[in-house]
């Protein structure tokens, strides 16, 4: 029952993290313009993985989409690929987790379901790592430009989408780890040793009425050894 409860909690964490990762991919505010040193702000700039926009003081936004993928910076292409991989891995991890959980009726035997649940946990861990890497790469680019004194273009700060992605990554990694450790009880083997079986078989091998105990059968050996010792003494006489 405890392992089943652990699987349910792990599935809840992993699925919640995957939903957060999926919502991070199309979210607008990956980075927002910094107002540091500005007295009057007439417009705000923000960008995500797919477009860059400017919003004026009246609230009207004008956006420009990234049409050519080959013309993008390398870090944007890497972040896109990692986020898409995270969403795909989380999707398959959710399906495998539903099949491998003990509270479901599909998946075969307990050992087979445990293997599927562990496989789902690995998918969730990889999904969290991909999302964590994508958000970290994007955040590193923002902070490196912000603290570079030679960078004179528009500087940006970390947007809300990055924090959502980091939160989803932590939940996916935590849930996937719990899924992997929840299968420990499914492969535990207990071996029982019955030490009286050998002596019982030796006693029952004699015919009825002629069964002898182990100690009685060992007496001839002891008597033989005593005769040998007595014979050794007579040799020297």
From TrEMBL:
InterPro entries linked to this entry: Claudin (IPR006187), Claudin10 (IPR003554), Claudin_CS (IPR017974), PMP22/EMP/MP20/Claudin (IPR004031)
Mode of membrane association: Multi-pass membrane protein
Top-level taxon of the source organism: Eukaryota
Cell compartments where the protein resides: Cell junction, Tight junction; Cell membrane
Coiled-coil annotated residue ranges, if any: none
Gene Ontology terms for molecular function: structural molecule activity
TM helices/strands, residue ranges: 75-99, 120-140, 160-185
GO cellular component, one term: bicellular tight junction
Protein family: Belongs to the claudin family.
Name this protein carries in UniProt: Claudin
Organism name: Maylandia zebra (zebra mbuna)
């Amino acid at each position: 029952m405890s392992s089943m409860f652990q699987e349910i909690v792990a599935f809840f964490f992993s699925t919640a993290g995957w939903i957060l990762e999926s919502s991070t991919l199309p979210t607008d505010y990956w980075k927002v313009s910094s107002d540091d040193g500005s007295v009057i702000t007439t417009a705000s700039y923000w960008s995500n993985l797919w477009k860059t926009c400017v919003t004026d003081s009246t609230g009207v936004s004008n956006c420009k989409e990234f049409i050519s993928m080959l013309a993008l910076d390398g870090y944007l292409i890497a972040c896109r690929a990692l986020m898409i991989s995270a969403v795909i891995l989380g999707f398959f991890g959710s399906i495998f987790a539903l099949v491998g959980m003990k509270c479901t009726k599909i998946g075969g035997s307990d050992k087979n379901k445990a293997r599927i649940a562990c496989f789902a946990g690995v998918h969730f861990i990889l999904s969290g790592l991909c999302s964590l890497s994508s958000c970290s790469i994007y955040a590193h680019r923002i902070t490196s430009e912000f603290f570079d004194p030679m960078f004179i273009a528009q500087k940006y700060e970390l947007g809300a989408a990055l924090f959502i992605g980091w939160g989803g990554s932590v939940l996916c990694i935590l849930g996937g780890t719990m899924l992997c450790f929840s299968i420990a009880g499914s492969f535990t083997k207990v071996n029982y040793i019955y030490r009286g079986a050998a002596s019982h078989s030796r006693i029952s091998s004699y015919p009825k009425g002629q069964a002898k105990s182990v100690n009685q059968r060992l007496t001839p050996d002891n008597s033989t050894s005593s005769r040998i010792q007595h014979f050794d003494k007579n040799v020297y006489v």
